[in-house]
Amino acid sequence: MAAQIPESDQIKQNEALAAKAGLLGQPR
């Protein structure tokens, strides 16, 4: 695993939210 990067964490959270929105029925 790479070093801990806060930016990556935020990006991952944003991606997770986008993925959930897409699952709800909103295309990316």
Describe this structure in words.
The protein is an all-alpha fold. It has 1 helix and no strands. The protein has one helix spanning 6-24. It is rod-shaped, with a radius of gyration of 11 Å. This is Mitochondrial import inner membrane translocase subunit Tim9 isoform d. It comes from Daubentonia madagascariensis. Residues 1-28 are annotated as: Disordered.
Multimerization status: single chain
Largest sheet: none
Share of β-strand residues: under 5%
Mean pLDDT, rounded to whole units? 77
Keywords:
single chain, 1 helix, about 30 residues, mainly alpha, about 70% helix
Question: How do the helices and strands line up, and which of them pair or pack?
Answer:
Blueprint: H1 6-24
Organism: Daubentonia madagascariensis
Protein name: Mitochondrial import inner membrane translocase subunit Tim9 isoform d
Region (Disordered): 1-28
Brief summary of the model shown:
Residues 1-28 are annotated as: Disordered. This is Mitochondrial import inner membrane translocase subunit Tim9 isoform d. The chain is mostly helical.
